[in-house]
Amino acid sequence: MEADKKTIKILCIEDEEETAKLLEEDLSERGYEVALAFNGQDGLKAILNNSPDLVLCDIGMPVMSGLEVLERLTAVSPRLMHVPFIFLTALSDRDSELKGRKLGADDYVTKPIDFDVLATIIEARLSRVARMDVWPKEVQLNPREIEVLTWSARGKTSDEIASILGLSKRTVDFHFDNARTKLNVSTRTQAVVKAMAGRLIDA
């Protein structure tokens, strides 16, 4: 278990240096490889350049807030949407939590940090990602399903996809429905996100 953990990279984005160092010390002792960023802008660059396995991010930071980091990450790099993103916050602000979850945050940990609770949350999130690495092998999307999901990930509507592929809108929707069934999701957006997380498509 410890040998496996050493290959797992965790990025901590935290502007309070003391908290950042405590996170680095605790997580390193638990066998993780830890990198630090001290503001949101540097944190976003680190995510895009280094592709960590999990991100811990403070919400209230100078330069760029944690919510802005997640929002920009989702916009510029959908391929990283499968990376667990956990917010660290001193806020008990329901509106901030709701906004974060809508943006795709996986969890919230309130300061002062209980490191045993944090470690349990990290383990659970990483285990979920590990399970997600298995299911794509069991899903077989045909070329048309891959095409319509790929174009949808690029922001195209059914009408636009139909025009691009030379198909009717009804046929495009048929392929979307088949893809949703195979991926066991309810909506087109969920199908796109899950297909990208499983690396079945690359937008």
From TrEMBL:
Modification 4-aspartylphosphate occurs at: 58
Biological process annotations from GO: regulation of DNA-templated transcription
CC annotations in GO: cytosol; protein-DNA complex
CDD domains referenced in this protein's UniProt entry, alphabetically: LuxR_C_like, REC_OmpR
InterPro entries (alphabetical): CheY-like_superfamily, Sig_transdc_resp-reg_C-effctor, Sig_transdc_resp-reg_receiver, Tscrpt_reg_LuxR_C, WalR-like, WH-like_DNA-bd_sf
Keyword Phosphoprotein: yes
Methyltransferase as UniProt keyword: no
Domain Response regulatory, chain residue ranges per copy: 9-126
Domain of life from the UniProt record: Bacteria
Domain HTH luxR-type: 134-199
PANTHER family (alphabetical): REGULATOR OF RPOS, TWO-COMPONENT RESPONSE REGULATOR ORR33
Full protein name: DNA-binding NarL/FixJ family response regulator
